[in-house]
Amino acid sequence: MGASSRVAVIGASGQLGSDLVRVLAQRYEVVGFTHAGLEVSDPTSVEAALGGQPWFAIVNTAAFHKVELCEAEPERSFQVNALGALHTAKAAQKSGARYVYISTDYVFDGAKGAPYLESDPPSPLNVYGASKVAGEHLSRLASERWLVLRIASVFGRAGASGKGGNFIETILQKARAGQPLRVVNDQLMSPSYTLDVARLLLDLLEKDAQGVVHATNAGVCSWFELAQEALQRCGLEAAIEPIPSSSLASPVRRPAFSALESERLSRWGLQMRPWQEALEAYLREKGHLA
Ligand SMILES: NC(=O)c1ccc[n+]([C@@H]2O[C@H](COP(=O)([O-])OP(=O)(O)OC[C@H]3O[C@@H](n4cnc5c(N)ncnc54)[C@H](OP(=O)(O)O)[C@@H]3O)[C@@H](O)[C@H]2O)c1
What we know:
Blueprint: E1 6-10, H1 15-24, E2 29-33, H2 43-50, E3 57-60, H3 67-72, H4 74-94, E4 98-104, H5 127-142, E5 146-151, E6 154-155, H6 167-176, E7 181-184, E8 188-189, E9 192-193, H7 194-206, E10 211-214, E11 221-222, H8 223-233, E12 240-243, H9 275-285
Parallel strand pairs: 1-2, 1-3, 3-4, 4-5, 5-10, 6-9, 7-12
Antiparallel strand pairs: 8-11
């Protein structure tokens, strides 16, 4: 493999990052950067890790994405999610590389009441969403060959921050422990299986895709429906109670309907499979199904 086939994955030990490292390695020479080796909010750290090297693409999955903490720490939120995008997109531009920024359905406010398309204007409801919109803009401003992938409600083998846990694992653990399950049924979204997102990015890089792309699995569900589907597929008969999000008393406003749909993938002959099929594949990958 030549120098121009090198791809940098930032956030390499994370839920999406770890799958990107293994999937992109099918076609590229992948160099993964963990948080210990690269701090996106620090331009000196970014330059030290990425500067002076030829890259085919730089993929930035790093984020400060705990929405409650983002509300409490807006400076850090913008430093990581917005300025982190600026610094890493500049590094990509300098080396003539494509730049990929991973974004979120939380750029939308949910008022549309139907799946959001790439052409819909963002209108975030919280600090996290606003910092990610800023990150999207700065990616576009700093790099000529930019790609923004919006994903949502992520599940993948490594778990959040590479620590094994995510929403589905929590539900299955609680069900097996006989603990009560109460899950919100009034927030609708499109879940994303990280392995599917990684495979999609492999194809998008191949096709030199640019611009904003919605990269969730197809379809819409509530968190309650996602939990119910996971329990059913695993043959667990735990009782699960649907609850309104108002009963959780979170200080953060969240979109009630943030499902995403792509009006762009078909132009490259690409599509994402339905979330139910992705969930089945995930449960198999994790060994939850025989
Ligand atoms: N998780 C979701 O449900 C969700 C939904 C929509 C969009 N997204 C977006 O998808 C992307 C990937 O999410 P994920 O679930 O894979 O997250 P994740 O598991 O937390 O992975 C993020 C990785 O980035 C690293 N990181 C965090 N802050 C960093 C910094 N300042 N500099 C360098 N590295 C840093 C983390 O390392 P440490 O853990 O060691 O800090 C972690 O390995 C993010 O951009 C997120 O905004 C996620």
